[in-house]
Design goal:
The chain has 8 helices and 2 strands; from the N terminus they run ββαααααααα. By secondary structure, the protein is mainly α. Helix 2 runs parallel beside helix 4 and helix 7 packs antiparallel against helix 8.
Length: about 170
């Protein structure tokens, strides 16, 4: 049987006490951590992208507020579009408004799918303080799809006074 090191994710024989790659102990590590701590660890460093995406998704579904700083860190540092989209959605579900400046940057640059997801989540967050930035995107963005999504997000914010929140 193969055992994975919880420090470096290297494969080890189940009889090993220490990781053959990094030397970390192989017993007790993750068993003593909370579920959220395990998810955050997987989000930060798991070598399989799907596991990182799944961890982000679970953290968002659970609305784990304490995960927001790690999600923002991953969002700012990962080069993977799929992981960026998953973290954007999760942060939107958590509702942490500290992510708004980063989402505004992502709405203007990068892969189209990430830009669209950032604009969509900005609209769902309903923060009236970003109306000017979304208006600029809706008028001036070179991509028609982004302009339309910015218009939809603006409409969400402007049409629902209960959703208009200031930061």
């Amino acid at each position: 049987m193969i055992v994975f090191c919880t420090s470096c994710w290297a494969e080890n024989e189940d009889t090993a006490v220490r990781c053959s790659h990094c030397g970390a102990g192989l017993t007790g590590g993750l068993d003593q951590k909370s579920y959220v701590e395990k998810l955050l660890r997987a989000l930060r460093s798991h070598p399989i992208l799907e596991t990182r995406v799944r961890a982000a998704w679970i953290l968002g579904k659970r609305r784990e507020v304490q995960a927001a700083p790690v999600l923002m860190e991953v969002l700012a540092t990962t080069g993977d579009s799929e992981l960026k989209e998953a973290t954007i959605v999760s942060l939107g579900q958590i509702g942490d408004r500290r992510v708004i400046p980063l989402l505004l940057v992502l709405a203007r640059t990068g892969p189209l799918a990430v830009r669209l997801k950032a604009v969509e989540i900005l609209g769902e967050m309903g923060d009236a303080s970003i109306i000017e930035q979304l208006s600029t995107l809706a008028r001036e963005d070179p991509n028609e799809i982004v302009r339309r999504e910015a218009e939809r997000s603006l409409k969400k914010i402007q049409d629902d006074p209960d959703e208009q929140k200031e930061t």
